[in-house]
Amino acid sequence: MSKRHSAKYKIDRAMGENLWGRSKSPVNKRSYGPGQHGQRRKSKVSDFGLQLKAKQKLKGYYGNITEKQFAKTYAEAARRKGNTSENLIGLLEARLDAVVYRAKFVPTVWAARQFVSHGHVLVNGKKVDIASYRVKADDVVSVKEKSRNMALVLEAQQSSERDVPDYLELADRSFSVRFVRAPELADVPYPVKMEPNLVVEYYAS
Fold it and tell me: Which residue ranges does the record assign to the Small ribosomal subunit protein uS4 N-terminal domain (predicted)?
């Protein structure tokens, strides 16, 4: 098993939840945490512990983005008008790798980051290879013509594990998608409960 895969599944087990709703998740068989102490009875978690877990879960869901990137995204959400927790979700979903994953161009968020960085993705017809690139409303994200027959692309499009949300508009035989708008929490098809309000409390404390 590659480092990337083991890290991905370690997050699932550490959280005790199947973050991406995948059939291969080890949580489907073992819901306790990783390591020799994983089955110990859990003690009551403090408010800070709940806030930290909410942050780690949300950060982990998007491919375990770095703490620096996540904190920067939160700071941007806090600067914007409106509800900070809703702004945070909108900004995370506007990441190019998140859009690529949501559009079902690839099967996992981890694959989405690599797919973008290897130059397989276009934004408004121009190659963008930065996973954290922020997509704007009405931007069109597409898979390069030469990359459309890649095995992981075909696998993702045939998968029934998840659907494309309505804030993305598919076109061009599902190889192109228009980012209609930044979604709110209720619009995002998370397989598990996300609590961005606790993330806001974490950074505010």
Answer: 3-93
